[in-house]
Design goal:
The protein has one helix at 32-69, and strands at 3-6, 21-24. The chain is mainly α.
């Protein structure tokens, strides 16, 4: 069964997500029609998880930058 493996990196080649994810494509993937169905199913399954992970990491970076920019309390 075909698989898709994602490895997200920033512009400098640094990993964005800590873990690499592998997704099994459903169906036989022998014809263009089967491949299209499998890719659409993959997108519905994987993209919400990926978006959630990216938003969490962006929020963590934002909070860390805010802590560094804040002057120390008296």
């Amino acid at each position: 069964m075909p698989r898709i493996r994602l490895h997200l990196e920033d512009d400098q080649g640094n990993p964005i997500l800590a873990s690499r994810s592998t997704y099994q494509l459903e169906g036989g993937c022998q014809t263009l029609e089967e491949i299209e169905r499998a890719v659409e199913s993959f997108k519905r399954q994987a993209l919400p998880q990926i978006e959630h992970s990216l938003l969490e990491e962006a929020q963590e970076r934002f909070v860390e930058r805010g802590k560094k920019a804040r002057p120390p309390a008296p």
